[in-house]
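Whether sequence alone determines local backbone shape is best considered at the level of individual chains. When preparing material for the folding task, we compiled for one chain both its residues and its backbone structure tokens. The sequence in question and its structure tokens are set out directly beneath this paragraph.
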Amino acid sequence: MTGPAQTGTALAGQTVVVIGGSAGMGLETARQARAEGADVILTGRDRDRLHKAATDVGALRAAAFDATDWAALDRFFGDLPQIDHVMVTGPGPYYAKLADLDHARAVGDYNNHQWLAIAVAQHAVGRVRDGGTLLFMASTGGRSRAPGLSVMAAASAALPALIANLAVEVAPVRVNLIAAGFVDTPLSARLLGDDLDKRREQLRETLPIRRVIEPADIAALAVHIMVNTALTGATYDIDGGEQLVSA
């Protein structure tokens, strides 16, 4: 059983941009934002998948590009009307043991997360209406300590501090971070491969909520953060209690 989807008019007359909105958490957030009356604009790297997603949710428009292509990101924001909210999802984190760490891939991971957040915040000034929000994604997994998690651990520690400071710099636009545990998405399926079903079952048996987190759970939180204008500069954990148990 998942959390209930949002239905109403809480975002009526507002425009939500989802960067990385062609699948998973981004697409489900777009779907729930539409259910709350918002117009949505989607971006993604895969043109065909993005077109299908945009048609599925009735998006106002869609733009296919890599958000870490900084010139393309500049063009995208330059063409936008005034908007109210931006949600950014991205590729998964970079895992590698110390002996195998690749500098170029580590720099790419920084660009995919910290620098992308900075770049989006720079573009938000004058483009996102006062009281709107910039919403970014992180993982609670980087708070663990194990071989292979060094880059992820550093990013997990840095992002909450970055988001809190950006909330001061771009106010009255709000800036928040969702830190998720395992979420049952296509990305998780690609990362786990044949171990996906085993991981699902393990989580169902060990999580306090006795079920796996799904994109709809993330989307419900994302829409709530957009609607509640008292929220800024904070990190919101959503992991079904994964950090409380050895899962």
Observations:
- Helices lie at 24-35, 47-57, 70-78, 103-124, 150-169, 186-192, 196-206, 215-227.
- Residues 15-185+214-238 form a domain with the Rossmann fold fold (CATH 3.40.50.720).
- The chain has one domain: 15-185+214-238.
